Structure prediction request, 469 residues.
Amino acid sequence: MSKLTSWRRHAATLSVVALVLAACGNGEDVDEPDAPDDDEEVVDDEPDDVDDEADDAEEEDAAPEEIETGLGITEEPCPEEVNPDNGCIYLGILSDLSEGPFAPLGVEVVAGQEDFWKRVNEDGGIAGQFDVNVTEYTRDTFYDPQTHSSEYRSIEPNILALAQTLGTPPTEAILPDMDIDNVVGLPAGWWSGQQFRDQDQGLILDSGYSYCMEAHLGLDYVADEVMDFDSVFVVGFPGDYGGDFNAGAEAWAEATGAEHLGFAETGTNALVGNQDAAVGAVLESGADVVGLAVGPAEAAEIVGGAVAEGFEGQFIGAVPTWNPGIMDSPAAPALEAAFLHIGSWEPFDGDSDAHAAMQEALDGEMPNNDGYTFGWIWSYPLLTGLQDAAANGDLTREGLRAATDEMVVDYEGALPDRDFSLDGDEGAPRVATVNRPNSEVDSLLETIATDYTGETADAFDYTEPCIIP
Prediction:
């Protein structure tokens, strides 16, 4: 991570110069040296390199030192200060933390983000001037758009940006206000529309592929590495998640000549009770490959139930289908035998520099689930935006929004670098990891392919969102 020179270093230098000048001009008589005669040679005792260093120092001191700030930034240090001389940048979090369908994931996403920004602060903060706080304005919105909207309005006057806005329907509910307020945000989700400025106004700083591209990548992998197949079926939640994934599967089938056998909508177990109907739909479809865009508990029940009833095909699961806790369920043997998890990046025990940093943050302990990894990796675009805006001398909301439009994000190896000036087809990530459940590894999820991209995924004409929810 780049560090910017602190303005305080320049201020200290200027203070010393001011003291020297004051001492020379304090009103006391000072003997002035005689001026040289016209024909007297003036000798410069200073070597050229000293003169050059002085010139460089003058140029450095002349560089802009002030960073313009606005809403969401205080001169006072953060409540839990790391650098007591730094001001504080407040970022909001709107997540699902207790009663919603993604609460187990949301809690760990928040934990990963808290540790990510703690590391930033311990490295000196933003531009050596500001620490970042993501705890003061964290709110539980239950994956409910109305609650999400009301909580956004309550914290908006006090934040610079959103470190997290979980879920596409809740995020879409606040997007018009975010646009008016010039508030950028990090999503917890992968709807394809977030990769198009005409859909998200350039406000949603997404990372990794979309659900739509995920289906392409997962099906490409099965075709390349697992088996030949002729048909695909999808079970998923309605809306941006299941709908986007299904649209990708349908486009993949059309491109390859495979048969798309349909999309069975289901809900969370809390909503529909159980997944018996989804299991029945899988068996009735007769599909060779079934894509799942549901929650972990629902995925385990569908895979376990279908395999127990004689299903012999292959399941692929979108990112949110995995939680290591499902390996404690009776479905564990079926998951190991018939389920592949598609991921935007490696699980927590991956090998990138980003993974090494998060592993160090937890002292080698495993998080409760990979939401921690998501939270950490999702945070890189906002860090880059803050750094770039500070370098531009403008950490207002408008300045941050402008900086994120042009930034190139370094994910410390967890993902390929990404140029956010590219929109839609040009900038959309098309790289995945592929994992399978394995009770013999610490994370219970073994990575079997990294940096994977497939022929159909590469060729997909990604010029608009796969669905508009």
